[in-house]
TrEMBL record:
Domain of life from the UniProt record: Bacteria
Gene from which the chain derives: hflK
Domain Band as annotated: residue spans: 38-218
Organism: Roseimaritima multifibrata
GO molecular function: peptidase activity
Name recorded for this polypeptide: Protein HflK
UniProt cross-references to Gene3D superfamilies, sorted A to Z: Band 7 domain
């Protein structure tokens, strides 16, 4: 079976006629879908978007639904500016989202020489945030790796200014503060666009060969501190108590002295008042003093019978007074 050239042309034009509606509606729909897909984007709540137009920085946008020029004219880089990032040195935690969170050269990172030429194994963590997304993305190539190099350099410098005892024991907090200040200064100088939140020392140990001896020394220091704390506790318990008792006795003595002085002054005032009355009327005053005195003395003498001294013929067996035990007086 054979076909002529005219028949083939009729068949081809017929197929094209059938595909024309599809091309008329399908192509615009595809272009519209591509337009929408490449012009709408979302910036998450903890991030900011850096917009580039033909590779040139245009602006930084906040979280939300945003629009850009489609078909690759505008490019958007999402940067987590509110998320706290971290890098670990001398050790590594698996599952970190940041590729620069830890390095494979952990043994080299943790070995640091101190100021007295001793070796120490130091593990530390830095926590930071992206403060300026534009600088973070475009100012320095590989900002995460650059930050790791800067942090290691700063830590070696700070530890190298101190003895091994300071690094392992009392100097940890001072090292963290100094490393934070120096690291932030260098980061600002390099224009990395980062804010260093914290530098934290983790495990700080002496070399393996001397570690048992160092542990014994450390234990002895801890026992010494414990004994000092116990002694201070006893001191703080006994001394305030003794001070309180002394203060109590002093106040009691002062009160007694004030009482005696007031009583003496009262006696003097009363004597002076009596003396004034005595000078005015001596006989009357004597009699009054005698009567008042007897009024106070006689009730304390018990039961008494008063008779005339010239009386006679008194019965000798008369029980004039009997004490509490049945005897006579």
């Amino acid at each position: 079976m054979s076909f002529e050239r005219g028949d083939l042309r009729e068949i081809d034009w017929g197929k094209i006629e059938n595909l024309r509606p599809l091309l008329l509606w399908g192509a615009p729909a595809i272009l519209l879908a591509i337009f929408v897909y490449t012009s709408i984007y979302t910036v998450q709540a903890e991030s900011q978007g850096v917009v580039l137009r033909f590779g040139k920085y245009i602006k930084t946008v906040d979280p939300g639904l945003r629009f850009k020029l489609p078909f690759g004219v505008d490019q958007v880089f999402i940067v987590p500016v509110k998320r706290q990032l971290k890098q670990e040195f001398g050790f590594g935690t698996e599952g970190g989202l940041d590729a620069t969170q830890f390095s494979s050269e952990q043994a080299e990172e943790r070995n640091i020489v101190t100021g007295d030429l001793n070796a120490a194994t130091v593990e530390w963590v830095i926590q930071y945030r992206i403060r300026e997304p534009q600088l973070f993305l475009f100012e320095v190539r590989n900002p995460g790796e650059t930050l790791r190099d800067i942090s290691e350099s700063v830590m070696r410098s700070v530890v190298g200014d101190r003895t091994v005892d300071e690094v392992i024991t009392v100097g940890r907090q001072e090292i963290e503060v100094d490393a934070l200040l120096q690291l932030q200064e260098v980061v600002n100088k390099y224009r990395l666009g980062l804010s260093i939140d914290q530098v934290q020392l983790k495990n700080v140990n002496p070399p393996v060969m001397v570690q048992p001896s160092f542990n014994e020394v450390n234990q002895a220091q801890q026992e010494r501190e414990k004994m000092i704390n116990v002694a201070n506790g006893e001191y703080n318990k006994v001394v305030p108590r003794a001070s309180g008792e002394a203060e109590q006795k002093i106040q009691a003595a002062e009160g007694y002295a004030l009482k005696r002085v007031n009583e003496a002054e009262g006696d003097v005032s009363r004597f002076n008042a009596v003396l004034t009355e005595f000078l005015k009327a001596p006989e009357v005053t004597k009699r009054r003093i005698y009567i008042e005195t007897m009024r106070q003395v006689v009730p304390n003498l018990g039961k008494k019978i008063i008779i005339d001294e010239e009386a006679s013929q008194i019965l000798p067996l008369l029980q004039l007074s009997t004490d509490s035990q049945g005897g006579q007086r």
